[in-house]
Amino acid sequence: MELNNKELKNITNLARLDLEEKKEEKFFSDIACVVGYFEDLKNVDVSDVNPVTGGTYEINVFRNDNDMVRVETKEGAIIRSFPDNKEGLLKTPHIFDK
């Protein structure tokens, strides 16, 4: 893909770049090099390269989700440890001032 002056001016406009003529020429040259680099990448033979979808071949060392850790508690002991039980709700001392 060959970039023309009109397309490059549009790029500078979209990027809101206000370039002097000397810097504009340098910018155009640099952009042309970058586009040329991508053109070269299009021609690289990757037919023998395996596709990579992740960055590692490590395996998960965590436990399975179905291996639940359960702590058995006695409901009555917990309810008795509260200072007051009102209408099935556990009442604690006030934390905030009234």
Strand content: 5-15%
The domain count comes to 1
Helix/strand-derived category reads: mainly alpha
Helical segment count? 3
Q: Can you write the helix and strand succession as a string?
A: HHHEE
The main sheet comes to: 2 strands, antiparallel
Rg (CA only): 34 Å
Low-confidence stretches: none
Helical percentage: 25-40%
Oligomer category = single chain
Mean pLDDT: 81
Number of beta-strand segments: 2
GO biological process, one term: regulation of translational fidelity
Give structural notes.
The protein is mostly helical and 98 residues long. The chain contains three helices and two strands; from the N terminus they run H-H-H-E-E. It has one domain (5-82). Helix content is 40%, strand content 6%. The chain has a two-stranded antiparallel sheet.
Summarize the structure.
40% of the residues lie in helices and 6% in strands. The chain is mainly alpha-helical.
